[in-house]
Amino acid sequence: MLISELLSYDPTDENIHRLLYDGLDYDGSAADLIMVLGSRKACEYRVPEAVRLYKSGRAPMMLFSGGKVQKTALGEMAEWLSMETAAISLGVSERDILLEKCSMNTAENFSCSENLLREVLPDGGRIILVTTAYHMRRALLTAEKILPQYEFISCPVQKGSATKENWYKTDKGRRTVLDEWGKLRYYIRAGIL
Q: Name one GO biological process term (predicted).
């Protein structure tokens, strides 16, 4: 079933699970680069998973993408800077980090990263994409649309209130997935997907 067809149905628990979580588990593959999308909780959820992949030899480089300024424990700072700071503190070499500093949303994460990716992977390549589980479907579809010359491998982070296993257990989890359902619908209507 096409994503647009699924979005035409009511967001029942089964449909939400199919749309946002089915078929996206990380398969353990190695790649040329790990790409981490920024968010308010990227340093808490996404960066540690990306560092784990890096340290286990899954990819030799990391790309942090996100230009929004967020409140952090260190004060207000851009997503890319907070992710870089967190990764270095967890043992990632600064020379293995690429920084995309302008994007303000998921689509821009990829369009603004294109030039950086062309510099380090001019002939295409494999990229492990790290984001939260509920966000992975939209991120992966957007990546494949904007950067078709690269193969993206999904690595959804299963932490927080909207994981594959717990999203339906709390009002917060349900609000999060319904918001993501709406964003996917918007991306399709706006022609992004």
A: Gram-negative-bacterium-type cell wall biogenesis
**Cα–Cα dist 162/176, whole Å:** 7
Q: Kindly give the pairing relationship between strand 62-65 and strand 97-100.
A: parallel
Quick one: tokens of 193?
């997907």
CB atoms within 10 A of CB 138: 24
Q: Which of 19, 36, 57, 45 is nearest to 137 (CA)?
A: 19
Residue 9 predicted with pLDDT over 80: no
Pairing type for strands 62-65 and 150-157 reads unpaired
- Give the span between the Cα atoms of 112 and 117, in whole angstroms: 10
Query: What tokens appear for 45 in the block?
Result: 């959820």
- Is the pTM here over 0.85, yes or no? yes
